[in-house]
Amino acid sequence: MYLDANATEPLRPEAAAAAVAAMGLANPASVHGAGRAARKMMEDAREVVARCFGAQPVDVIFCSGATEANALAVHALGAGRAVFYGATEHDCVRAAAPGGGVIPVLPDGTVDMRALEGLLAGQPGALVCLMAANNETGVRHDMAAAAALCARHGALLHVDAVQAAGRCREDWLGMGAASIAVSGHKIGGPMGAGALVVSAGREVMADLRGGGQELGRRGGTPALPAIAGMAAALGGGYEAARIAGYRDEIEAFCLRLGAVALGAGANRLVNTSCLALPGVRAQTQLIALDMAGVAVSAGSACSSGKVAQSHVLQAMGAGALAGQAIRVSLPWNAPPEVVPGFCGAYEAMAKRALHGRAGCA
């Protein structure tokens, strides 16, 4: 039972078909007929991505994934500017701006707008990096309010839309964002492709220099199969109401067993629950659920397989619960059976863990 969609969504059939179709093609930079055919497929994919995010095709920069897209945004748009990022941002953004200022979040995980305004008042013209939806809790920031604040202070807003893209529809560029980072495998495409989508006419200097690909903004031969698959995945359906119903049933059941749903008071992605079981380590829960055939995670999946206390939950003031929380993220193709299946496994795990703890006491 796969419930770790925020780590990677299951591959959509249409994305797999598009990737396979691209595998036998030539290098899109080649000028012969075979190269032109590959180039057409790539430019068709670029148009799909641009249309999805309200951009022009020329403003879509293909890259290897969201880590590279976020780093490109920070380095290119943050040059000569102060950089601020949310306290719950992904590690790839934090690492791209090691000297950046941290914007606090409220206990529900949403960005503290008063604190952001104070930071921007002291550093007008800054770059602000915020994720549209958090990968661990699903909490969604009010991006329209953040964009309005940035506009008032002459700041740029970069949106990490990795978890939100394909799951909720928001016009981030229309709100005034300068750039958006997306990742193919988070929406049901293959791993290995992402994109930085920038506002109209915005100049971007390359981090990776090579053969002048992507109009000189990102060197290296593009991963055409992954790019084609990403574009195909963007057209896939997402039954938000159905997924939200499963999420709510699971949460209600776990709360009756004594779990705490972190970030539940905020607007969240419909597929994500961050469930803490007081007194029971996240690693203990993960192992027990894995042995029962249930795949979930604790925090981000990008930490080299480590189970560590979450900086996201620490920033929210979760205290000891930060080390006792697991993430349940429902995939796009979750069947109804996930609700009784997960609930049964979770109940058995919780009863064993809590009984063992009581016995030791």
Features:
single chain, 361 residues, alpha/beta, Aspartate Aminotransferase, domain 2, Aspartate Aminotransferase, domain 1, 2 domains, globular
Specify the oligomeric state: single chain
Portion in helices: 25-40%
N-to-C SSE string, H for helix and E for strand: HHEHEHEHEHEHEEHHEEHHEH
The CATH homologous superfamily of the largest domain is named Type I PLP-dependent aspartate aminotransferase-like (Major domain)
Instruction: Look at the helices and sheets and give the structural class.
Output: alpha/beta
Q: What is the gyration radius calculated from CA atoms? A: 21 Å
Biggest sheet strand order reads 1-7-6-5-4-2-3
Number of domains: 2
Q: How many strands, which pairing sense, and closed or not: the largest β-sheet?
A: 7 strands, mixed
